[in-house]
Amino acid sequence: MAETLRVFACAREGEGGGLQKYLLIALGGALGSIARYWVGATIINRMGTRFPWGTLVINLTACVIIGFSVTFFARRTGLSVAWRYLVPIGFVGAYSTFSTYEWETLTLIRAGTFPAAAVYAFGSLVLGLAATWCGMLAAEFLS
Q1: Residues 6+ apart with CB under 8 A from 108
Q2: Could you list the residue range(s) of the whole structural domain that residue 74 is in?
Q3: Is residue 20 part of a domain?
Q4: pTM to 2 decimals?
Q5: Averaged pLDDT score across all residues of the chain
């Protein structure tokens, strides 16, 4: 827990220099939003739109990325604080799609497809936690 707080504390402590941190967040956000569009479109083209597979894949991979990056950057304190702004704050902030996940769950419920809504909501929660844990374990192993 302390590792996670230390990685995101840089935003409060003002580390990384004024304009530079905002540019890094913007760059990460641009890359994250492009990646989100590409992954989502690729999944939709392969799987169709009857189930929100694209958002599920994006959310799970975002969990792996944030689990890995927060753990890795907290353990590698010698790395530039710039990576904290670029990856977990900028990239993952734009790439992850929690609000879309909520909207799609509500849409499934309103369409009367309660089993699909339950599978999607519960699957996102459980698999998201597992993906975050896997990212954390990978970073612990590599650092």
Answers
A1: 52, 114, 116, 117, 120
A2: 32-142
A3: no
A4: 0.76
A5: 89
